[in-house]
Amino acid sequence: MFSQTVEYALRAVVHLAMRRSEPQTTAMIAESTKVPTAYLSKVLQGLRAKGIVNLQRGLGGGVSLAIPPDKLTILDVVTAVDPIPRIRTCPLELKSHGVRLCALHFRMDAALSKVEDAFRSTTLAELLTDPNPSVPLCNSSEDEETSTPPAIDE
Amino acid sequence: MFSQTVEYALRAVVHLAMRRSEPQTTAMIAESTKVPTAYLSKVLQGLRAKGIVNLQRGLGGGVSLAIPPDKLTILDVVTAVDPIPRIRTCPLELKSHGVRLCALHFRMDAALSKVEDAFRSTTLAELLTDPNPSVPLCNSSEDEETSTPPAIDE
């Protein structure tokens, strides 16, 4: 239900929120978010156009958040790249309905509204300080130790 | 965010719930729901496969609801044709996360869960008895009177 673009944009801003001390290269973001570089570049351009990230070219440049993580909500990011398609007018284009949605479309829109509300109520800072043991984008060291060793060509 | 298939399936079952006294033809449903007939046929096959509608061929046959409107929820219909894609495991396939979602994916899944909850709590019967003045799939007569008359070739 959430587009690939939304998923990738959220991964990218989480990466940037976790590493604010120095600008990140697209390659660094691509590696930690597991997003194909070409797709990531388009997503970052979209985020830049909406003022979510800064892109600085050249030496010492890179990608950084343009908004502090405690001021940036999940909804801000989603709306920047692929807004929740709220139902504002009758999808059947019935003239008598117009903006007065019938019960069906009113309920469908209400569900979309709940998604917006949930995303509006969570900042990037809250995601990073969540006590959840699974850290976004990161394999735990425990897992590294117990993971299957890479196969070796003989 | 909701697929065309979901939108069309919901229109079709609303039509059937409003006209339970006699089986409907695909052409009748297509006309009132404004769904292309070929697309509608596929949607109805999907609903039949999941036991939401009955399709009877031949004289006196047609399409009808297989479940009473007061027992059929919006979620039943959505799940039959295009289920809400809940996030069950780490989309990055991080081994240490697995089913223990990080804060980001936990919040995204929680939003999807709210959509399911909203759809689970509404039956087709409730949609039809809603006091909303815009009746699903129907232009009001008031609108018919005030609409622009069709152009006449001279």
CATH topology of the domain at 4-83 and 123-132 in chain A: Arc Repressor Mutant, subunit A
CATH fourth-tier homologous superfamily of the domain at 4-83 and 123-132 in chain A: Winged helix-like DNA-binding domain superfamily/Winged helix DNA-binding domain
* Secondary-structure class of chain A: mainly alpha
Integer-rounded radius of gyration of chain A: 20 Å
Total number of helical segments of chain A?
Answer: 7
- Strand order, largest beta sheet of chain A: 1-2
Distance between the termini of chain A: 45 Å
The greatest interface here is: A-B, 53 and 53 residues
Mean pLDDT value of chain A? 89
Low-confidence regions of chain A? 141-154
Q: Please identify the top-level CATH class of the domain at 4-83 and 123-132 in chain A.
A: Mainly Alpha
How would you characterize the largest beta sheet of chain A? 2 strands, antiparallel
Q: Helix fraction of chain A?
A: 40-55%
Subunit arrangement of the protein: homodimer
Q: What string, H for helix and E for strand, traces the elements of chain A in order? A: HHHEEHHHH
Basic shape of chain A: elongated
Number of strands of chain A: 2
Provide the β-strand percentage band of chain A.
5-15%
